[in-house]
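Quick one: structure for this chain?
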Amino acid sequence: MMGRTRCSNILDRLYDFNKTGKPDPTMEPTTLSILQKQCPKKVKLGQPNPLINLNPDNPTHKFTNSYYSRVLASKSVLGVDQQLLYGTDTHDLTDEYANGLEDFKGGFAYSMSRMGGLKVLTGKNGEIRKNCHVVNK
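Got it. Here's what it folds into:
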């Protein structure tokens, strides 16, 4: 499910942001309308829970910087992604990456290199979670 999420993960943002009964006011209106069509309000048990693309501008999931352009345009699907606009450092990086694919590729390569140096917990010291939100039982 790389690059996609279930509608249930964004329904609050589309219909009841912070329990206001209204959508997230920071979301660009056309994006909101499209997402509401793809993810109708949950009204009955057993209703489908579709998968939607996190970056509809890049449905083939090619390595691009269009994600950052969407953040700058307030078109993020996930609220946590939209938060990149509200920190000084994260806003500056988002702007830099949206305007320069080579900067993004360089930063990505550096991050992957650093992650490669992490000591992975194995055996009884670690676990692969079945659901990333909760520790396995």
